[in-house]
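Onboarding guide, step 5: your first structure request.
Type a short instruction followed by the sequence, for example:

Predict the 3D structure of this protein.
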Amino acid sequence: MKRVNASFALILLLLVSFTAVFGQSNEWFHFTPNDRIEHIAQTGNNLWVHTVDGFVKFDMQTGEKRFFDKTHPVTISEQIHGLARLGDGGVIIVVTYDLGVLEITDTSWMYFDTTNSVIPSYDVISISSSTDFSSVWMATQSKLALIQYSGNRRWNLYHIPEGPLPDSVQTILVDHQDHIWVGTSRRLLRFDGQNWTDFTAELRAAGAGRVWVQHLYEDTQQQLWMGIAGDLYHMNGENWELVASNLGKIEMNQDASGTYWITSRPTEETAFVYTYSPQGLMPLTPENSNIPFSTYRALFRDDEGNLWLGGFPGELTRYKDGQFERFDLSNSEMKVRNTLDIAHTPDDKIWVLSENKLLIHQNQSWNQMPLPRYLGDRMLVQDEAHIWILNPASTELSAFIQGSWHTYDTSNLFDAQTKLVDMVLDEANNVWVLAQKTLYRWNGQKWDHFDASNSNFPNLPLAAIVAGNEGQVWLADERAAGLYVFNGSSFRRHAHPEPLLERSTQVILNRDQQGRLWIYSDAGLFHFNGSGFFAADVDFPIDGISTGTDQLILMSGSSLRFYDGTHITSVLTPYNSSLRRGRPAKVITDAYGNYWISNRDELYGGLSIYNPKGINNMLTSAAAALQPEQAGLSAFPNPFRHHITFEYELASPAPVQLRLYDLSGRLVEKLVQPVQAAGRHRLRWTPTGQAAGMYLARLQAGTLQLTQKIILTP
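The system replies with structure tokens like these:
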């Protein structure tokens, strides 16, 4: 696990000190495939399903879904290691590897860590409920600590005895006698509330080499099973026996008939499902059973004895009465994790390219267009009857024209040495395809090409293209030595004042709403106003440039930075906002001013919508269900230095109080307004002597409660 660096420590510390009312941020909406299920727990009729996007509270009787992802005011950890039920009142306890312990009730969440509990470190690695659910037990990995929590801030701390060699806790289990079994990277221990018993020697005598305990399970006959260094062991009375070898990391459970089920993960990306009997292991596959295909990671038995499986890819699967049934936990028809490209057309359709289909969003719904195969990762949409997809790796261009696909490659258009770069659409609706040494134009009827044989084509390989005014296109070479404008017959060069002597690692070219050209290379970011180049005051690497209504959106690593042409006005990261982890790839702006953000990360990727003033036009039925009736609390600029403005909307007249808390939970400012009319309002706060760091702003207006994290910079 990658530890959070010091620059983000203040951001994360705040999360442990506050209880937040359930609700979603009105600034963000994530389309969540919910297809990488890690853990499952039950309270009453509800399953709590942890996915890489957050939690889904799933009612097993009605099928109702409630989503809790990064848009929640209290950030959900992305390093969750388990969840368990506490009591009969619907309480779920979540252990994380970076934020401590999260308690979720029907009305609130609260983080516990080293500052407000007996937990000695943040790296809580495993959790197990007592037999009557009156308490949960958990352990930290590095401090060898065993912790009991009984709710209402009642904690007990026990220190795990040290072994002859350094080790760390891997898993724990509470058995039918409420004894606690602790598996470490070298030992197996049992704690009866007073005394510790070490079973490591017995396991070695049974053939175990390194006693690296990865999984513990007690079956309905009260017998213990263990996953040890990839092998499965069984404790039958006082005897230990090896059952199966080379399974990797396992999960084990039983169905209603008592049959043993095992999920086996030899690697993180491969998994198998087995049933076990005295005759041995039997693999379950879609070919020999009707189990749906998936890389299963989670295996859970509910109170009725039904088994629930979850993994990647795939949805939540239930095994009941010999049959498998799948449940869709996504929050829309947009279920693509790795979005290759996105586009926006004048009819306000959003187009999303995935590996095997196109998804089209309009009027709160999604439509799909299957692709004949993988066609590429660059998309250009003229309209629904003219779609272009470019695959630079294979020198192939695919065109959907009037209902059928056409392929252009080295057999009918390009030379064998052609290296495709990109494509654009100009104001005259011509499609331009750029190769390193040739420029192609499709006018709707035929192809034209321009190179050194028929024009004054640049003598350096080209690396980027963008459309200009009046049918012109602008090009940049791979050394960023200049910009070239092509008017349909000839090229004109504008020399760059700081050309590179060698090929730039990347060249990015875009044009903003004011018509200025922006070029980024290893020499930095420059803008061109038609006559000269001007260096931008940015000192960070840029992976992509998108244009908003009045700002550039610069993608840098996992962050988005908004640039008005002179200054960075705001920075969004996964740590100070609800931006997903991974690497943002492209941002487009729809007709309502919402930013659509694609993320091509295979694990954390997906599609998100962001609007700092609140998402306009409820873009999906799911979004409408998730957003509160009142608009959310937004703050800008954020981070800020001198002052910050809070904006909110009231559905009906109400008195307003805005409280600001520091990291210790101390109230540092209270802004009070008398009864305000329904509608949108603003409050401005100017700090007076407060230290730089993160603060929590909490708005209360009648029954409305909203929370927003803000950062005061030095």
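Each response can be followed by summary notes, for example: Helices lie at 9-13, 200-205, 621-626.
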